[in-house]
Amino acid sequence: MTILDQINENKRTEIAEAKSRVSVEELMASPYFKRKPNSLKAALLAEGASGVIAEFKTKSPSKGVINETAEASEITVAYVAAGASGLSVLTDDHFFGGSFENLAKARFANPETPILRKDFMLDPYQIYEARAHGADVILLIAESLTKELLLELTLKAKELGLEVLVEVHSAEELEKLNPQVDLVGVNNRNLKTFEVDVQTSVRLSKLIPDPFVKISESGISDPESIAQLRTAGFKGFLIGETFMKTDDPGKACKEFIDKLK
């Protein structure tokens, strides 16, 4: 069983438990259902945008604890001040130390910034959760979903006013895309082995249809690689560990973005 298999198995148990605690109707009663979501797509395509989607996470299966003292409000505000185009907040607790509390803190502190709920989405219920806790975008991992389920989740997200980022790692997974998807992310980290290669984005870039905004995810540790990725057509760059492993993630983000100018 791969790490992704383990994560998905655990996630199905979590989803069942969440459904037993909180109904969809209760989620829809959240004040966040009344707000207009921010567009990550528009933010990435804006003139002069850094393209950086700065991620808040405290641990991962491959690295263990990354930053156990990190505070979501403080760091995400610093990310935005540094020039990040968007934010990504982990909500998986068991494997990544994430939480809806962190998402809520980031949302409250950054009302105008698009926020991605980073989790392993397998059920429409999770999309209601995302909307209820203030997310603007959801992540769908192609490897975890059939083409039919990916379409079902995409349509539910669009119904609820959220944008959809589909993550792929191979040419075969691109066949699962549908026209309703907003953004396509290439994960440079193999979710089966957790090995990282930024060239994965470069290799797949020509295979991603033009209507989709391209995002490169994971393993981006130096500003120089952004130039190559931009040449390959990428508008977004999801970066977490590079910032979070430092004593001051906000400062690390600013220094990184300053070098892009």
UniProtKB/TrEMBL annotation:
GO MF, one annotated term: phosphoribosylanthranilate isomerase activity
Sorted UniProt keywords: Amino-acid biosynthesis, Aromatic amino acid biosynthesis, Decarboxylase, Lyase, Tryptophan biosynthesis
Catalytic reaction annotation: 1-(2-carboxyphenylamino)-1-deoxy-D-ribulose 5-phosphate + H(+) = (1S,2R)-1-C-(indol-3-yl)glycerol 3-phosphate + CO2 + H2O
Enzyme Commission code(s) on record: 4.1.1.48
CDD domains tied to this protein: IGPS
Entry similarity comment: Belongs to the TrpC family.
Protein name: Indole-3-glycerol phosphate synthase
InterPro entries named in the record: Aldolase_TIM (IPR013785), Indole-3-glycerol_P_synth (IPR045186), Indole-3-glycerol_P_synth_dom (IPR013798), RibuloseP-bd_barrel (IPR011060)
One of the GO biological process terms: L-tryptophan biosynthetic process
Pfam families: IGPS
Presence of the UniProt keyword Amino-acid biosynthesis in the record: yes
Organism: Aquipluma nitroreducens
Broad class of enzyme this protein falls into: lyase
Lyase found in the keyword field: yes
Ranges where the Indole-3-glycerol phosphate synthase domain occurs: 4-255
Pathway, per record: Amino-acid biosynthesis; L-tryptophan biosynthesis; L-tryptophan from chorismate: step 4/5
NCBIfam families noted in UniProt: PRK00278.2-4 (NF001377)
